[in-house]
Each structure stands twice: as structure tokens, then as C-alpha cells.
Description:
Blueprint: H1 3-12, H2 15-19, H3 21-30, E1 45-49, H4 54-65, E2 69-74, H5 77-91, E3 96-100, H6 106-119, E4 125-128, H7 146-167, E5 172-177, H8 200-221, E6 227-232, H9 240-245, H10 247-253, H11 260-263, H12 265-272, H13 276-279, E7 283-286, E8 289-291, H14 297-302, H15 305-319
Parallel strand pairs: 1-2, 1-4, 2-3, 4-5, 5-6, 6-7
Antiparallel strand pairs: 7-8
Helix pairs in contact: 1-3, 4-5, 6-7, 7-8, 7-15
The site of NADP nicotinamide-adenine-dinucleotide phosphate has 30 residues, from helix 4 and helix 9.
Amino acid sequence: MDGASIVDALLEVPVVPSFTRLGFDVRRRSDHWTSLSDYRMDGRTVLVTGASSGLGLAAAEQFVRCGATVLLLGRDAAKTQRVSDEIAARTGTAGLEVVVADMGDLDAVRAAAELVLDRHDRLDVLVHNAGALTADRRTAPSGMELTVASQVVGPFLLTSLLLPALRESSPGRVITMSSGGMYSAALRVTDLEMGADYRGSEQYARAKRAQVTLNEMWAERESAGDVVFHSMHPGWADTPGVRDSLPTFRKVVGPLLRSAEQGADTLVWLAADDGVPTQSTGRFWLDRRPRSIHRLPSTRRSDTPRRRAELWQWVSAAAGVSGA
Ligand SMILES: NC(=O)c1ccc[n+]([C@@H]2O[C@H](COP(=O)([O-])OP(=O)(O)OC[C@H]3O[C@@H](n4cnc5c(N)ncnc54)[C@H](OP(=O)(O)O)[C@@H]3O)[C@@H](O)[C@H]2O)c1
């Protein structure tokens, strides 16, 4: 183990230094990260969901600065167009497109995929970043619980529909923004959607666990020469999402929170670097290093081949995707 790996391992054990800007700063220096401004993505096309705020906005802007054509997917047409105009003004670039869809509305996801495939033969990077911790139980147009619909089923459908365009990139990349919150959650299928027992943080953790599991399962099914799959967590970053959903947490962690740009760093690196991120697939990342997907024996025990197979079957049926 080299010196940087020892420093990294010491940081990883307790969550607080690892997830805050302390972990980010130490790892950036000890691992000698290439600055994101050194990457070029000219001629590449990137679709970012949840691009109208926080981490998605920060990543989208960095992709534009790297020269990529960026498709901003947002659920609010006016807000997403405004963000697009602001990024264009700040970067002096016109290479931005807006796609409108609520990720929990499967008809809207299908329409968005059709639009993207009409306009682009090739998609180099698909970023599943849209997400929220919803305090009260809400349902999507299909009647499904909203967190699961928008962060598990909608992204699964979008990946399935865009695979032909991603395969044209050799390898295309699919990157999912999960959360360290998933460490507390077991892998669930029959009770993935909470009912009367709904608690926003628990529902969020279950959905984020499913995302990370499906990332590994996609990687097993798809040749890494065609498409690679990465999931990650951003640590704790100060975004409108955290301000709205976790005001007390934000107050306590305060100045130790990462900026949105720091939270999005590994996302941009996974999309832009042509080294390690194109040579590995199915892994879960924080701060440009792969991490274990389990920290607790109880969640590890829940993660059986049988339950994984049930999850794949369930999500394929829920998304209306056959043969995925
Ligand atoms: N910030 C953190 O510390 C942290 C930690 C762990 C994981 N994450 C994850 O990082 C991702 C980004 O979060 P953030 O902190 O940047 O929050 P944010 O500022 O609230 O941004 C979330 C983005 O997702 C969009 N979105 C939410 N639900 C959607 C839906 N059903 N359909 C389409 N778009 C939807 C939002 O659209 P609107 O602009 O219309 O609201 C917004 O663009 C999320 O997946 C979150 O779970 C964040």
C-alpha cells in the first residue's frame, strides 16, 4: 500500500472526515488529481438528468467547459431553460440542449429518449443524477411511490432505451449518482416501495441501494467494450437539495460541507478521463477511488444472488422493458 492509499484508508473509516470537504481536500492532494479543467471532451455528447440544480448543474457546466455537447434534462421546462441560458452566458458556449421529463413519469422518459435518439446517433455519457429526499409519501403518475419511480425505475428505462446510442461510443458510460445513505439500507424488492410505514430518509436509502445494485448488474450484462457503468456518491455537498430536505443536518455540518463542484468532481472525472473509468465497470466510487458497497454485515447478508435476480425482474416489469 502506498502512502496515499494509507491516508485514503484512514479517512474512509470514520464517515465525517471522509464525506466532508476534509476528505476531498486531502485525497485531491495526496492522489495528485488531474484538474478537471485539463480534460477535453470535444465531439462528445453528454446527457445529465437533474441538471437544473446542485451537483447536476455543476457537472453540466464543467462538461460544457471541457467542450462537450451537453443535454440538460430537467422536469421544469422554464427552470431548465433558464439554467441552460445561464451556463451558456457564463461559458460563452452554445452547445447546450434542453430535454424536459420528470424521471418518475415513464411516458415522459420514453418521449425524452425518443427525442434524444432522433437528434443524436451517439451518446457518450448518460448521467443519472436526478434525485430528491421526499419527506411525505408521494406517488408518480403510474401510482408507484415517487422516489422509487424517479430514481430506480425511470433511470432503468432511460438506460434501456438509450443503450443503442451509448454502444456507438465504445465505450459509452452510464454514471449513477447514489448516496452514502445507501450504506444503511438492505437490498429490498417486495418492500422496496414503502407504504404506510413511509419515512423519507429510509425510502431514499432503499432506492439508492437499488441503484448501486443495478449498476453492478448492468455491468455484468453489458460488454465493457460497449458500455461501462459506474455508480458513486458525492460525499456531503451544499446544494439546494440539502438546504431544502436536510436543514438541520446542513446547520450542524455547516462549513465542512463540500461545494457542489467538489461533490460533482468524481462524476466529471468518471465521464471525462479515458484511463481507469473506461477500463473498469460496475464499481461504486467516492473521490476517484472505488469503494465497497457494504459497510454493515446486515446489508451484506441481504444482498443475495436470488434477491438480485428478483430486483432485475421487478424493475424490468415496472419499466415495461422486456429482454433488458
Ligand atoms: N448534495 C449531497 O450532499 C448529496 C449526497 C448524496 C447524494 N446526493 C444525490 O445527488 C443528486 C443531486 O442532488 P443535489 O444535492 O444536487 O440536489 P438538488 O440541488 O435538489 O438537485 C436535484 C436535481 O434533481 C432534479 N430532480 C429531482 N427529482 C426529479 C424528477 N423526478 N425528475 C427530474 N428531475 C428531478 C431536480 O430538479 P428541480 O430543479 O426541478 O428540483 C434537480 O435538478 C441526487 O440524486 C441526490 O440524491 C446528493
